[in-house]
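Justification of resources, computational component.

The compute hours requested in this renewal are based largely on the per-chain cost of generating structure records like the one below. Each record pairs the submitted sequence with a full structure-token output. That output is archived, and it is also reused by downstream analysis tasks.
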Amino acid sequence: MYVCMCNAVTDSQIREAVEKGATRFGQVRRELGLASQCGKCGILARNIFNQSLELNVEQEQLFYAVG
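The structure output for this chain reads:
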């Protein structure tokens, strides 16, 4: 789904950035150009980022607990 219409950024791109190691929203914002035009996407983008980061951390913990 498109999160940022101004820069055609999708939720998948945000999740992919987290999977690649982004740990701060500012990193993703700069890399993808989020909230750099009208700013209306900022809250939704941050929510998607936070959820993705939490899921990524949970998956890492499961991996290490078993591994």
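The beta strands are 2-4, 9-10. The domain at 2-66 is CATH 1.10.10.1100 (Arc Repressor Mutant, subunit A).
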